């Protein structure tokens, strides 16, 4: 135990040293700094309060297994918010993927036997991911081609995808998942759960896409200033389509994680995630009006809420007390932000001018 | 769009909604003779009452340019805590006093929303997401988590739950609570169309800055709006308790997006400044019509959710396509977001 605490302190001090170095060199992205601070504070608080329970490797591993699916869904909402939109259908898309994989696996297993189903597993997973991408593309179609406001388009598709999942499953929980997925949920590499590694990989990939590729630049400009984006020759149609496809893809991966944690799927799974995920994305410093978001900020917010959730259960507080904390943190951070913001002369406009320039070096 | 057609459509597509409802009704009547009975109608009315009260609150918030997702939490918080307190006190002051107390509790919770939103000018979706968590969490952690069944409810509440306005022998009944629901709907309609307060809400939703320039006290109007919406939500919560003859702290929360969908279907604009009580009533009725009677069309009831989703997409899709026709060149560009609340 003490070894671990030492290692932890070691990591902490190293992170802090690295952090202050970063602070000096670059303008710290809005949201990242305060989330890092909040994460360290909450972690320390619970570690001091209940070191035996909270710092227990089992608890740390559980956090590493529970957080990734929320993290991926948050990233999916984040990229939509980056363009000034939102995606309320992420959980429904993730469930769509999970249900597709589960029912295909069961169907193949029934028809050709268990071994054949395992053999087909990669293809089945691929089909599942494809379903997520297609659902995302449909969102993209509604937003970019038909021109429906994202919050309404995805409110509708959330109902539609969820409704179709209900129709498909008949409203019951279906079970079955390829053994590769199932074992993935319980495996760890060098003490780090595979699911955590998947989240980090996806996050790094997304950060690179957003900050280092033309697509990412277009997405950022589209959110910061749609008119300027259009005059710069950026096609809003393809940019928005790409955004919602990426959102669908990230949700699909989250759906695979659902299955790997628990080899069953239902239309209702994670229905409380929609609002939680929005809380995380906003806490992570994403501007709800678009144009600014950081992957790192959202990751830190995901971890912070996971730490608070685990810490609360370590303190034997209920899920409802956790809900209170969630609300208080959200409103507290927003109010603090606004009070600081009030010092500026003009009220906030969803334009570029009163926002820190997105730094490419977040990840 | 010719003038006559657009007049038939109504300012918020109410005409279109009436047409859709008529089509659905005719289809249902043709496919099942069981549809045109008093029982079906009364069941529709009964199941529409609670959603309608919530929808009226959502409507007012949408008109002001915001989005409220905390109303179910306010509703169950106010209703459950009031009922529990009344039972605990061993008193039975009568259903109307209980409803009044609940509405007072709701108004206080609404005040919390209003103050945070108006004072700090925060995005309404974010604030109400937070307060939803807080209200529900406080309710279950500190006030009570035990289901209160009909046997424990105050006698006067049970008496009201059993009172019918109209009884059709063998054909069901019209619940008495329809009277206060209609009164509330009419009051909200009058408030929105005939009072300075109501017009101010439209003005703020249309353009906050312009509203401020013409001398509307935006902060005060918003605070009162959320107080009112909180009280309305509490009334909806009490209505839910009375109709269901139970108080379950785990209920209601989770239905917020369905209600918002019905209001949007009713023609209210998510950007604020547009929406009507008539449209909202029609939107709620259409959703309930589908939820209650889809089976009559030979469609399994599991399709309810998907059907409402499709309708919502068709509704907002038609609006989006209609909105961009006048100046065809701006097809590709989203309207620039006017306020931070909009995108939230």
3D architecture notes:
The complex is a heterodimer of chains A (363) and B (344). Chain A contains 15 helices and 4 strands. With 363 residues, chain A is mainly alpha-helical. Chain A has one domain (30-47, 60-341): ABC transporter involved in vitamin B12 uptake, BtuC. In chain A, strands 1-4 form a two-stranded antiparallel ribbon. A two-stranded antiparallel ribbon of chain A has the order 2-3. In chain A, helix 4 (57-82) runs parallel beside helix 9 (194-212). Mean pLDDT of chain A is 82; it is low at 24-28 and 345-363. By secondary structure, chain B is mainly α. Chain B has a domain at 35-252. Helices cover 69% and strands 2% of the residues of chain B. Chain B contains 15 helices and 2 strands. The longest helix of chain B has 27 residues, at 218-244.
Task: Name the chain pair with the biggest interface and residue counts per chain.
Answer: A-B, 65 and 60 residues
Strand order of the largest sheet of chain A: 1-4
Detail the poorly predicted runs of chain B: 326-344
Q: How many individual domains of chain A?
A: 1
Low-confidence stretches of chain A: 24-28, 345-363
Oligomer state of the chains in this structure: heterodimer
Query: Helicity range of the residues of chain B?
Result: 55-70%
| Portion in beta strands of chain A | under 5%
Order of helices and strands of chain A: HHHHHHHEHEEHHHHEHHH
Beta strand count of chain A: 4
Overall 3D geometry of chain A?
Answer: globular
Fraction in helix of chain A: over 70%
Rg of chain B over CA atoms, rounded to whole Å, is 21 Å
Q: Based on Cα principal axes, name the global outline of chain B.
A: globular
Strand content of chain B: under 5%
Structural class of chain A: mainly alpha
Structural class of chain B: mainly alpha
Question: Number of helical runs of chain B?
Answer: 15
The CATH top-level class label of chain A: Mainly Alpha
Q: How are helices and strands ordered from N to C of chain B? A: HHHHHHHEEHHHHHHHH
Organism (chain B): Actinotalea lenta
Pfam family, one (chain B): BPD_transp_2
Protein name (chain B): ABC transporter permease
Membrane topology (chain B): Multi-pass membrane protein
